Amino acid sequence: MTLVSFGETALRFAPPEGHRFETAREVSLRADGTASNVATTASRLGTESVWLSKLPDTPLGRRVVAELHEHGLETEVVWSDDGDRQGLTFYEDAAPPREDRLIQDRERVAAATITPGELPMDVIQAADVVFAAGSTAALSDTAAETLGAVLRATSGARALDLDFDPGLWDADTARERLERLFDAVDVLFLNEDEATTVFDRSGSPRELTHTLASSYDFDYVFLTRSEHGAVAYHDGVVHERDAIETDIVDSSGQHDAFVGAVIDRLIAGSATDEALLYGVAAAALARTMPGPLVPIEAGEVAALVDRETSGRR
Amino acid sequence: MTLVSFGETALRFAPPEGHRFETAREVSLRADGTASNVATTASRLGTESVWLSKLPDTPLGRRVVAELHEHGLETEVVWSDDGDRQGLTFYEDAAPPREDRLIQDRERVAAATITPGELPMDVIQAADVVFAAGSTAALSDTAAETLGAVLRATSGARALDLDFDPGLWDADTARERLERLFDAVDVLFLNEDEATTVFDRSGSPRELTHTLASSYDFDYVFLTRSEHGAVAYHDGVVHERDAIETDIVDSSGQHDAFVGAVIDRLIAGSATDEALLYGVAAAALARTMPGPLVPIEAGEVAALVDRETSGRR
Amino acid sequence: MTLVSFGETALRFAPPEGHRFETAREVSLRADGTASNVATTASRLGTESVWLSKLPDTPLGRRVVAELHEHGLETEVVWSDDGDRQGLTFYEDAAPPREDRLIQDRERVAAATITPGELPMDVIQAADVVFAAGSTAALSDTAAETLGAVLRATSGARALDLDFDPGLWDADTARERLERLFDAVDVLFLNEDEATTVFDRSGSPRELTHTLASSYDFDYVFLTRSEHGAVAYHDGVVHERDAIETDIVDSSGQHDAFVGAVIDRLIAGSATDEALLYGVAAAALARTMPGPLVPIEAGEVAALVDRETSGRR
Amino acid sequence: MTLVSFGETALRFAPPEGHRFETAREVSLRADGTASNVATTASRLGTESVWLSKLPDTPLGRRVVAELHEHGLETEVVWSDDGDRQGLTFYEDAAPPREDRLIQDRERVAAATITPGELPMDVIQAADVVFAAGSTAALSDTAAETLGAVLRATSGARALDLDFDPGLWDADTARERLERLFDAVDVLFLNEDEATTVFDRSGSPRELTHTLASSYDFDYVFLTRSEHGAVAYHDGVVHERDAIETDIVDSSGQHDAFVGAVIDRLIAGSATDEALLYGVAAAALARTMPGPLVPIEAGEVAALVDRETSGRR
Amino acid sequence: MTLVSFGETALRFAPPEGHRFETAREVSLRADGTASNVATTASRLGTESVWLSKLPDTPLGRRVVAELHEHGLETEVVWSDDGDRQGLTFYEDAAPPREDRLIQDRERVAAATITPGELPMDVIQAADVVFAAGSTAALSDTAAETLGAVLRATSGARALDLDFDPGLWDADTARERLERLFDAVDVLFLNEDEATTVFDRSGSPRELTHTLASSYDFDYVFLTRSEHGAVAYHDGVVHERDAIETDIVDSSGQHDAFVGAVIDRLIAGSATDEALLYGVAAAALARTMPGPLVPIEAGEVAALVDRETSGRR
Amino acid sequence: MTLVSFGETALRFAPPEGHRFETAREVSLRADGTASNVATTASRLGTESVWLSKLPDTPLGRRVVAELHEHGLETEVVWSDDGDRQGLTFYEDAAPPREDRLIQDRERVAAATITPGELPMDVIQAADVVFAAGSTAALSDTAAETLGAVLRATSGARALDLDFDPGLWDADTARERLERLFDAVDVLFLNEDEATTVFDRSGSPRELTHTLASSYDFDYVFLTRSEHGAVAYHDGVVHERDAIETDIVDSSGQHDAFVGAVIDRLIAGSATDEALLYGVAAAALARTMPGPLVPIEAGEVAALVDRETSGRR
After folding, report:
1. Mutual angle of helices A34-44 and A59-70, in 10-degree steps
2. Which stretches of E166-271 are DSSP H helices?
3. With 0-12 CB in 10 A as exposed, 13-18 as middle and 19+ as buried, what is F312?
4. Which of C87, C66, C94 is nearest to C136 (CA)?
């Protein structure tokens, strides 16, 4: 396997656009997890990818896998029969200035009990890139240790998305626990909010990216700024890209699509600025698609990149 | 009861967004009346509120009350068994420059036969604020007289929303009949269109507000201007506020949310400009929610007011 | 025109199957009137047909015509601009033993003001069959007189469906007013309930049919008994047919489909028992289709008749 | 208050009829708890009723209350801010012989922490009937003790529904813990399955009912048998009633509707066999309505009882 | 008949807004063909119109006609029993910068076999305007010849819409085959893309319009530029109009609505610039309505034209 | 691979239950092909399975694979870029006595061009069972020859489902072409209608099964009779089983579920009567699930078999 992606995936319930749970009678159901979202995008763009996680062997757990398979993603799931819960989230999307709401309901989920012994370590070892979602470390000490073990087990590159959610843990705890893993991380992904909240640092995006890379000795840092574009650090240089302007259908999948596209390009050997451009293009397309898990096609990312590069519209 | 709100509430049928009745096969069904919309917002923001009206004792009449209860509003309804009709409206929302359509079908509705003797006059007497929707006076002479009796019965403040609809009566009749009530009105709510149509006056919003207050000796006049903000007159001073910029999901609930929030603040003892700001914030949130009856929460109005006041975004 | 069908058509609102208006948020919208239902079935089976009525020139009135045209029915509508209402009904279908509910809201509808002078009398005169729905006589004296004038104007056969609804008028009034028209009626359609309610007669269906024909000197009487079949009187003979057994999707269109098919056959010159069989077959197919206006095809009625006749299944 | 009903209420998610979570994308959302279902039916039939419980102060907790209010039920809710969960269930309905599935997800719910001190004991004391759902005792020792305290606090009659679910606790634990409460129970409700599973007893329904009443000295025992009717014991006599035959839309609300109707009748002073008949009639109507919380009307229960008594159909 | 419109109409399947066929489970179904879209708009605006085409006598063919009739359009259809296919398209709408997709599936459709002998040539001969959709010539040589025969058969004006789709034929073939018809064309409609793709010409819209008119000796050329307005050539003069600004619900019907409105005006004797303005107004309204076949009303086009002319908003 | 399943899979469009295409606006979209349905059931029951076919490389072709992957089926697809079509069907389900309709639109589909050289012959060679859908031979001579080549290539058992559809070819052609393959078929699946239509034979199901086995020297013949059960021939003995009684949600998946379960059991080494029982149980469960591709679980088939065997209900 070229990309091995590790982390919990929840089922996300959401009322129709603009509505609230308080008066909702019908809600949509979608698999939503950074690790599986990222692997799905990378897989759709051409990188051989597999998602590793642990789920309860219930209709809810099987629901997660069915949706990932529908998108063509390969999965290696540890199925739990011990009464562990399926992680759930409840999402109310809102038009600005009203704020989105994300209620976390992820206590005692199956992934909180995952141990290195349950994972296919040979697959992890042989991967080109191992990617992990930082939020998984919030589930339990066991999960946090397994996450560390996964990153340390590979001979490939190690990528981590901060994936911080205040409903799971507070910023200080998150920083402390994740910092212990940073020596095993080559590529860090985060968004602008996380940079200020988790690391409690201020400064321009360029400065933040540079500082984080220096402080923790990362090879790459990619920082997304939604409609303001993205910034990348590598080898002492900071690259910056504006977002591609789009109509917005649903912005919830854009960051993970960015990450998936960047990883796909890094594995393909692209230079940092090219990877950044592909990430920005994938994020733009993701904003035009409903849901967190988006059916992006390689051809349309390439076409958009081409359009941006050539300046034609 | 702190707020007593009096007026007819219709059932509103509407085809899906952008569609027309001509080719619609499924339509939505919502309770829609200024008096109940306003009381619902005030109640959700913390003011003890009750809605008074008369409805037919049929599945349609019960439908109205069920939706108001769902939002937590208390109701005191006179149930009619005399074959009176339920008020109906048929609404086609349209993207500009196409114009919304609202077909009124409110002949012979139960509320047209309401008399003061049917109402809990002690509750009205003891209210801090009695609010009435001017459109109710269009239903019949009986309803118009009862509306006047309700306003005159209280020892609290009297508020009236002009709530003019050309499908119910013409502007001259509306003005004539409502003017007879103005001596019993302390607070007038209206929107900019109504100011020009019903009162046939021109001038800037500031001027209109001031003139109306002077002409009829109102304590307060609140004039809403949808995406252009709102204006308030009190005690010789005119206050003005820009609208808070929003994505627009459905603008049909914004005016009534404004009124509900202003009343909530006036009862709480806020100054005019603070009440105006809360009204503008509630209207902004209402534009991000579908339907005329919106599930606004006190916390998010306060947060938005705070954001506006502090200048942070 | 071969068949001219005269009568009011309402818009019928209904919540989803098994649900009630009290808690419904989405309702379906369908054109529903005996005269247009019957003409649609006859037209779909091959009889050149036109529906005559009066509607308000509003989106609701146009909605009625759009649905009839969709089924291929020709219409001649008098459009009213005088603020007349569109007839409405509110229907809650219910599984037995719970009873269906039909709320009539048909005061002041456009068809109540229709006069013979507004109708194309030459078309009526030349028809092979003129059909009228008795319920139209409940709308107003004007409508009742026009209904009589329509029946008397033709040189073809005159057919009337009793189409009694207790929400429109009481049984005694209905009988009295309709009896005045019976001298101008050659063919009477009714269902078993109407026979007992309106005519206050008891007896077996065979007896009822025979007695009604004798009392009022009808050429034909067709009496439907839903899942118990139908009975026909003509020329001193009573014919009887069991219903064809079906799964039931929606039984609301079965009677009118029966009438449409019988008229189609009588115009084609079929004998009474053959017309009865076609009516029973059309009613059976209508029970398998949702809604009051059903997309029956001539070929499938013929196939079902053939199956019944041959005894094959 | 005449009826005070105590117990947890969950949010129930369910895919469309016949579908599974594994492939579902849209699911319905309904409040479902025996205590609130029963109180809703009693309230709709005319008994003044209030539901007592504890919920998290989140959009999910508020969703529960909104639906109960929509049905006109009064509520007294202890709102928890401590991060307690909202109880959830996941329901797959299935046509026979496929079996329904109900997945319980009720760990750490707010109601598990409820204490007598949080409840309005004066209201409980003064009630005519206090009803409790046995399943609430499965949530925690605290909840079980509070349930006992509620039953012991009233000077009215005490009713308990066994409400056993194998996904919450095993039969032996349930029996042991509930037996400790039986001295404070005057009226027991259960269904046939629970009689055999929880009490591990065999015998005819008449025998089971009689034996349970004798063993635990209940005043009344009501045992429901879905499409086979129900049995009641009181004062040494066993009454039995066949179910009223119905088309089945959704059978999930029938038992609780039975209980609500029986309690309404007992409070009204009905004899046992009359209460039983009303229960059976309410259950029949509930089978024709979708969902666990059904909009039954007093008039239609009375009409159905009348039809059964008179033998007319 | 005043307008006779000739051309194939497909059934268009489309997933919900923003979604893709890859993961869609429900798709909408709409009749979509330039000839029927144009005739529907002209008919709704008041021009007596009929659509001529050939369809398979199947449920899919009948579906096309039912939708056109619903919009009040008259049709003269040659029904094929020879196993010919119904033309299908599969449409994925996308928010920019993602591009819409239109998959053509129109091999062996019934309209490909249509011959002049099957058409009512007397109706064509007597029309004021005969309109044809150029795409029909892509179906087969037979269809292309019949299209030519139709244009040549009338004594009225001949209008052609280029209606080029790269999924049907390539630009060179299209130009070659259509050029053979241009001597029988008085009025040409096209959009800006087609001007460059099919004719391989560059230049400003004004220049393109003028050049095309000169090259092929058209009386009129109308060129639409979606949100950039439209240009018209007649009698040596080029007229230009900006688009009327709108919120965009669905832009797929705008070009055909433009054409229908222009033809309606030309038949009414309007000058070129007035026809252009009506076309631009109809296109604006069409952008606010979902689907390719839009329920525009004459009154609202006139009101919008009036607003534009008077400068009031 | 244990089971290799070969054959075309279409996309099936269907209006909502009871509705017709003529008036439908929303239709469902499902992958439907005997080869993939059978492999999906076998795979869900535990047999390692792969589906082999050819599809166009378009959104429609990818849609087929996405749905199969969602059900966990492995696929080996030859992707065609040559403009081949995706096979389509249009299905109207109908309640009896109205008959279902299935319109075939499968000309020029990608699978019609499939050649043995495109297939992974080593996988086919090594399979325990190779299954093929007879309908694939109707697509073209090429497809028919490839189907033969697939059956002849394996060293495992060869199973064929007759899968006859009169919309694809006539019975005589089907019989002639399929008979040429019968020497390479060990196990034949068919339903009762096909036995009489394709083979033009009469007799009891037992006789038909026996005769077909003798005439063509099949090892096994399995004949399904929907609600009348199924019959199996093997080794000179005919086994018969009644259907398990069910409520019917959708009967369209029952035959293929039967076949999948029988193959799963034969591969597991079950005796004929046991395989037959599992087939009947899977068919029963399939009737309770919507759509042609059903999410059956191994556990529930086993439980139903156990219930049938033990006689408990």
Report:
1. 30
2. 171-179, 192-199, 205-216, 254-267
3. exposed
4. C87
Query: Between chains, do A67 and F71 touch, taking CB under 8 Å as contact?
Result: no
Chains near F (3 or more Cβ pairs under 8 Å) = A, C, D, E
Per residue in E241-290, pLDDT (tens digit) is 999 999 999 999 999 999 999 999 999 999 999 999 999 999 999 999 99
Fill in the DSSP letter of residue D98. S
- Average pLDDT score over residue span E58-64: 98
pLDDT given at position E313:
53
Scored b (16 or more CB within 10 A) or e, E234-252 reads: beeebbbbebbebeebbbb
Q: Which residues pair with B191 in a beta bridge?
A: B224
Alpha carbons D49 and D4: distance in angstroms, whole number: 6
Query: CA-to-CA distance for C258 and C286, rounded, in angstroms?
Result: 9
Determine whether the interchain pair F99/C307 forms a contact, defined as Cβ–Cβ distance below 8 Å: no
Within chain F, where are the H helices? Answer: 34-44, 59-70, 121-126, 141-153, 171-179, 192-199, 205-216, 254-268, 272-287, 298-310
Chain C and chain F share a number of CB contacts under 8 A equal to 39
Residues from chain F that touch C246, judged by Cβ atoms under 8 A, are 95-98
Query: Active-site residue numbers of B?
Result: 256
pLDDT digits (tens, 9 = 90+) for E87-107: 999 999 999 999 999 999 999
D157-204: per-residue pLDDT in tens?
Answer: 999 999 999 999 999 999 999 999 999 999 999 999 999 999 988 899
* CA distance linking residue E282 with residue E259, whole number of Å: 9
Q: Is the confidence at residue C273, as pLDDT, over 90? A: yes
- Binary contact (E66, F30; C-beta < 8 A): no
Using one digit for the tens of pLDDT, what is the confidence trace for B136-176? 999 999 999 999 999 999 999 999 999 999 999 999 999 99
CB D203 within 8 A of CB D169: no
* Chain F contact set for A69 (CB, 8 A): 69-70, 72
Confidence of residue E201 (pLDDT cuts 50, 70, 90): confident
Q: What is the CATH number of the domain that holds C29?
A: 3.40.1190.20
ipTM above 0.85, yes or no: yes
Report the domain count for chain D.
Answer: 1
Distance CA A243, CA A230 (A): 7
Selected catalytic residue, list C105, C256, C273, C306:
C256
Active site residues of F: 256
Q: Quote the pLDDT of residue A133.
A: 97
> Measured between CA atoms, how close is C72 to chain E, in angstroms?
7
Tell how strand F49-56 and strand F101-105 pair up. unpaired
Other Cβ atoms closer than 10 A to F118: 15
Task: Scan for tokens 């789920």, then name that residue.
Answer: A55
At F126, is the secondary structure helix, strand, or coil?
helix
Phi, psi of F181 (to 5 degrees): -95, -15
Number of H helices, E strands in chain D: 10, 13
Quick check: C63 and B21 CB within 8 A? yes
Q: How far apart are CA E218 and CA E187, in angstroms?
A: 6
Q: At what angle do helices C254-267 and C272-287 cross, to 10 degrees?
A: 150
Determine contact, residues C250/C300, Cβ cutoff 8 Å. Answer: no
Q: Count Cβ–Cβ pairs < 8 Å, chain A vs chain F.
A: 16
Print the domain residue range for D98.
4-312
Name the amino acid, one letter, at C298. Answer: A
Q: Which of D32, D84, D161, D256 is catalytic?
A: D256
CB-based contacts of D286, cutoff 8 Å, min separation 6 = D251, D253, D254, D256, D257, D258, D294, D296
Between CA B279 and CA E267 the distance in angstroms is 53
Residue B311 pLDDT > 90? no
CA-based radius of gyration for chain E: 18
> Which amino acid does the sequence have at A138?
A
Q: What is the mean pLDDT of residues B29-40?
A: 98
**With pLDDT > 70 as the criterion, what percentage of chain E qualifies?**
99
